[in-house]
Amino acid sequence: MSTNLVSPTSYRSSHTPAVTRRKWFIDLQFRKSDRLATAMSSSLVSASSSNNYDYSSPVGYSDQRIPDVTAQDEDERLFAKRSWDIALQPIKQLPMNLIFAWMAGNSFSLMSIMIVVMLFMKPIQAIFSISSAFQSIESEGMIGNVAFHKLIYFLGNLTHLALALYKCQSMGLLPTYASDWIAFAEPQLNLETTLGGLTY
Amino acid sequence: MRNYSTPLVSPWRRVLESNALGKIDRIIWFENEALVVSGNGRRVRTIRYTEGLELWELAPPVIHEPKHSHIIKNHRDSGTIHILSDDLLWSVSSYGEMLWSVELPSKSTLKNLFLLSTSQFVVVISLDSNINQLIFTYHEKVHGTKTSSKSIRWSLDLNETKKSCTTANDIFLCSIKNHLSIYNSPASNSIQSTTDDIVPEQLTFSDSIENYKVIYETNTNILVLVTLINNDKVLYKFFRQQQATSSDNSNWEYIQLEIFTKYPNSVYSVAMEKGNLILIQAYATEQKLNFQKYTVNERSIVLSRTYAVELPELMGDIEYLQYHSNNSPLATLRMNDGSLVVIKFGEHGAELILHRDESLSAIVSAEAFDLSLSIGQMRIEEEFGGTGMLSMFIRRITTQTSQLISFVLKIVDFIIHRHKNQDFMEKQAALVRDEFNLNKILVVVTSVGKVFGILTQSGNILWKQFYNDFTPFDNFNQPSVPLFNIRTAAHYTHQPLASIYSQNTQIKTFNPYTGDNVANLCTTLPYQIRRVFVSSQIDEEFKKVLLLIDKKNKVHTFPSVPLIRALGTTTPTYIYLFDKTEQAFNGYHLTVNDNEQTSTDLQEVWRVVFKNEDVVNIHTRLSTDRVHSNGIVLGDRSVLYKYVNPNLIAVVTEGVDYQKVPFVNLYLVDTVTGSIKLARTHKKVKPPVHVILAENWLLYTYYNQRYRRYEAVSAALFEGYTQYNFSSFSSFDPIVPMTETKAYILPYGVTAIQVTTTEKGITAKDIIMATPNGMLIEIPWMFIDPRRPLDMTQMDREEGLIMYTPELMINYEYVINYYQFVYNIRSIHTMATGLESTSAVFAYGLDLFYTRVFPSRLFDQLKDDFDFMFIGWATIAFVVGSYFARRFASNYTTKKAWK
């Protein structure tokens, strides 16, 4: 991040592996990270200028290392925001799914079956891809403890599953009655045998 | 090639009533039609020979149940028939006119027994057992008015008189010890005569008379054959001169003709042939029929020719012989085994031209046997035997090598012989179990003791075996023979076995595939038995054991094994026996005593006695009855548990109450405890009551006399919404079953009823009902469900119940025999097949009918019109198409990458 501060050029050779085949190119667009960095640097510069202004140095140069305390705070805040966003995403979706489930009705039709399948598939997929959901934060280089968020995310998906189960229950798909198990009941064992009939 | 020069007579059949009304008393043969008197003189009809058309039918004015009848043909006036039916005397002319009828005086001691016809009178011979007199009452022939009567002293009682006396033309014959008395009927001027007139002429023999028979009877000739106890046979020829005046004064003269045979079981028939009186004597020796043809001359009898015919199988003695000589001389015989045999006599000897097993209309028990495994299937069974690893390996290698060799040999054989032995191969293939075990062998036992093996797929008789000395049991006035499946075809190393038991304490065991007797398992028991059962366990040779209870209530086993081996030790065994004389059920507990190996005592534990009502039948559950589900799922998804008590029997009783109203009672008796679980009374109801007891329900049909219709009642027993014990059932459990009952009106009468059986009992159960009009109807259980509601609720609709309507609507789709009507069906046998959806039905009575039914449709099989070719080609096309599509797709992406 400090390298960005000293070279605030808008053009530079990219060192991303995807563009290694090219000999050169001009990136006229700020990358997402660069944009973030310049926004941060402008506030940084204004903060530093009020405190340590040294005319002997060229513009933008400081031979002192600036402690990066505020940036760290800001990162953490953003990190928390992002991770909470992801963690609470399933819970936010719950009302929509409730409406879906209610709209589908309890009768058996193609739509209602598809919705029930979707209700089950989505949270299960989400639970299995729990780490990839938080991958984006890690890829942005933000490192922090997301275990709690993951738990929240997991619980949120569980509410979805609970909704799906409730839907199944109200549609009568759950084997919760004795009648659902009657086909598996063993035939009764007879404790006596009888033989007989008319005497000849 | 059909010979069109002779008129074609299409075969026809007329089925008379199945009850007493259809029982033929006498047939009188006329030129073009036969006059049939049936039901002890209650029905008279003529049937034309050519097409079986019934020309007319007459019934006497008074309807009652006669006990005795005598029918004679008036020899002076050959178109007139006189019928004596208890107290009614009536005359019928051959063109269907009732000439007159006379009600005879009725007295409890006076029994009208015989009829005679003279030129002017019809004489009724009756016995007054009170004053020991035989009374001859003369009725005028034209109007039937009584003119006079005479009586003679008589020493014989009613039964003896019935047995030893008969009439021929206008003479009355009676045998007493070694005398044959001949009462020459008094003449027309007998009105003035006194009783002294009737003085018998007596023929005296050297030995007592065993029987005698009038074998020929015309206006001028009578032949009487007398058989003595010592088997001597004497033929008497009675004759009188035919005079132009046709006066009755001419008395009969008789001569004794030569005694000519000593064969014990010979039968005789006499016919006119080219102006000569021909007497045919026939007797059977082993598998051969012998005929002797005699010419009866004026005063002598001359042997003219002998014939012998080889029979295709053992048929026993001849029961009945009729000789015809209209165009070509023919003899029709009924044999001991019920066979109908027609013999044609020609210049070069006699030949058998027709043989029919008529005994198949008298089947008393039937059992289906699975066909044996094919050799290939057996080898597979063999392949996976052995214990050690090496021995198993060697066994597999050797069997697989032999399979390969036999396959190669089969192919070589097919190439060399092609179609030469195709018939043989097809016949062999018919005896091998098919993929779904649909085809079986039906072993049927007939009342005459002939046992048949019938292939179900074709109805062909595979084998027959005639047991000469065989008498069936009487099971509530129905003949019955216990037939047991001793060893099934599953144990392929041993031959399958079936056993039958007859009243003369004989056990016959045979192979149900070949009919061959198994000599070491046939025996005559040294004791009388009360009941025979088959054991539940199998012995070392995989066969079941017969359990026999003798008169002293000791239990024997055949073949002799310890009782523990035959019954197992886990469940206690109870035995119930019904004694007809005491009208009582006795329940016994079978205590297996280790010390006494083969016979043990029965301990009485309960007793149910019926008073003022007679038990008319006992019905048990089918041994093949399977209950798959313990309960019924209701509309609210709760479970109503069935009361499935395997120890229940249905007892049908009938009686008359104190108001003289007939009633029928039905009880469900638990045979372990003797408790009655269900009792139903129906007043003004007539048997026969047909009962089905299956699973937890009961269905019975009866005739309602009040409304004059057939009704069916179904009842189901339920334990309730909870189960007392989910894992086991004991009759001692304190369960009071709930009962649901509904009654239905049947559109037809019922002659037999049965429920379908399937292997696992998953499939719905249908009722197969045989009706008097020849239909076999398959009624879905849903229609007779006792839970059909009177007013439908949402819950009932959810469950799929139909609203109750008393009338059972029988759709013509339910008739499983379409227009192949089968009559007088006595019983229906259902059997499970390898397919759960399919149940086989075999109905027997006068006709036999076999089919397969699908109570829940063919849910486990593809439809017949399933297009295998289309599916196969479509699959191949998809596989090939997907392969090419993949190639194209990869080419396309490669090309795209190069752009």
What does this molecule look like?
The complex is a heterodimer of chains A (200) and B (899). Chain A is mainly alpha-helical. Chain A has a domain at 71-174. Chain A has helices at 2-6, 32-51, 69-104, 110-128, 130-133, 135-139, 147-171; strands at residues 189-190, 193-198. The longest helix of chain A has 36 residues, at 69-104. The termini of chain A are far apart. In chain B, α2 (375-383) runs antiparallel to α3 (389-417). Chain B has 8 helices and 61 strands. Helix content of chain B is 11%, strand content 45%. In chain B, 32% of the residues are buried. Chain B has 899 residues and is mainly beta. Classes of the chains: A mainly alpha (200), B mainly beta (899).
Keywords:
heterodimer, A: 200 residues, 57% helix, 4% strand, elongated, disordered N terminus, B: 899 residues, mainly beta, 6-stranded antiparallel beta sheet, 61 strands, 45% strand, TMEM85/Emc4 (chain A), transmembrane (chain A), endoplasmic reticulum (chain A), membrane (chain A), ER membrane protein complex subunit 4 (chain A)
